[in-house]
Amino acid sequence: MENPLLSAIAFNADGLVPCIAQQHDTGEVLMMAWMNRDAVAETLSTGRVCYYSRSRRGLWRKGETSGQVQTLKELRLDCDGDTLLALVDQLGVACHTGRRSCFYQAEREGELVAITAPEISPDKLYGH
Amino acid sequence: MENPLLSAIAFNADGLVPCIAQQHDTGEVLMMAWMNRDAVAETLSTGRVCYYSRSRRGLWRKGETSGQVQTLKELRLDCDGDTLLALVDQLGVACHTGRRSCFYQAEREGELVAITAPEISPDKLYGH
Fold this sequence. Notes:
Two copies of one chain form a homodimer. Chain A is of the alpha+beta class. Chain A has helices spanning 4-8, 37-46, 122-125; strands at residues 17-23, 29-35, 50-53, 58-61, 70-77, 84-90, 105-108, 111-114. Chain A has one domain: Ubiquitin-like (UB roll), CATH 3.10.20.810. In chain A, the strands form three sheets. Chain A has a four-stranded mixed sheet, covered by helices on one side. A two-stranded antiparallel sheet of chain A has the order 3-4. The N and C termini of chain A lie far apart (43 Å). Chains A, B: This is Phosphoribosyl-AMP cyclohydrolase.
């Protein structure tokens, strides 16, 4: 029997649903990415968050290359069934720039600036 | 001169960008909705969050009908420039069901259930 949450998701015309990742204890919003049906199913069955990469057109097991995995604490669905909120435990950093959160660009004094610094260099993160 | 954050947004093929609303002090993720260029511009200029309703095909000034407005504290853009995070002060409830957050569906003992109760009835919210 299919998972009841999976059955309730209203995937878009491309078969995708946006998923917001939030650090379960601090409340920090880490990133937003997309999932297809297989990604949601894998996330629920393994407890490791798996997205769908629209550029690579395939499953994107978060942390597979960087080691910065997301352990699922709870998956929630919104009122319309078309957006997911994943409460996760993020190991290290969520952003490919080496920052904890992807949401680091904001306006300061008329300019768009990075309001947080990388915690680790992308070179180190991806082993180049 | 256009706002530097607005200029940096990578809108999708439909001219839209997803925006996550988070209560600025508690960290609660309230909802996710879409914005077009005009909605972002209005949000930045008025300090009241305005989305774009895909069903109504027009600007959706959050709280216009229900009174449950969102005051903008800060608008942040993610690393790829294709998702916004709005730190807001939500008056009352964000969800049309009368719940504080739209993300209230989760699995409990094999069933999809509502994990929070409405704080106000939708009838009262929309004055029916």
